[in-house]
Amino acid sequence: MNTIYKQCAHCGAPIKLTTVLPHHSPGGTLWSDGYLEIPGVPEPPVLGKCRACGAIGCLAELATIENAVPPASEAEYNVVPLTLDDYALLLDNLEEIAAPFHPYLRIRFWQLNNNRRRREDDAIPLSDVERANLTELLQLLGEEDANRLLKVEILRQLQEFEVAKKVLGAISTDMANGRLDDKYAPLIARLQQSVAEGNARLMVIYSC
Ligand SMILES: [Zn+2]
Questions:
Q1: pLDDT tens for residues 4-58?
Q2: What stretch of H or E contains 111?
Q3: How far is the CA of 56 from the centre of ligand 1 (A)?
Q4: Residues having C-beta closer than 5 Å to ion ligand 1
Q5: Cβ contacts of residue 135 below 8 Å, gap of 6+?
Q6: How do residues 169-204 score in pLDDT, each as one tens digit?
Q7: How far apart are the first and last CA of the chain?
Q8: SS3 of 103, please?
Q9: Could you give phi then psi for residue 206, rounded to 5 degrees?
Q10: Ligand 1 centroid – CA 162 distance (Å)
Q11: Neighbours of 94 (CB within 10 A)
Q12: This prediction's pTM
């Protein structure tokens, strides 16, 4: 663990960030929506809220306070993670947010909504708001390998199985021609099976 302090762009208060060193990989559960759950380790946030004034900012873009003296009550400065309501509000005000953040906001909104399916019931149907979000997200994702696979997963959850099969077919061809990293093979096999079965439920890809 590594602690740094960022400065809120709105009120100047320190925002405490704890980052996990990249080589520290304690295992976890990867879900089909790309959500990686590592017990006891919070996901490093991209956007966070200042505890002092409530302003939401991109944490990486905030100035780092060099040689910060840890405050007496450190908990007061912990970054506040965004909630599902925060993401819904941000998505309602997208015109105020820089375009490069839009895919991230939509992916987080999707993943946070899926937490109910992770914890309660994977058969909970998508709400209209979730469907609209995924339809918009599909348009935003590029042609990188990971994004193509994410598109298949979105199509699967939207029950657009025929379109998902077509995208998967193109991905499989690229795989056979060595144009896709072998590491995706198990995920592709898993997606192919569930699309063939007409299964739209959220899945665990691996757990270790
Ligand atoms: Zn602030």
A1: 899 999 999 999 887 665 554 567 899 999 998 887 776 667 899 999 999 998 8
A2: helix 102-119
A3: 8
A4: 8, 10-11, 13, 50, 52-53, 55
A5: 158
A6: 999 999 999 999 998 999 999 999 999 999 999 999
A7: 21
A8: helix
A9: -155, 160
A10: 48
A11: 14
A12: 0.87
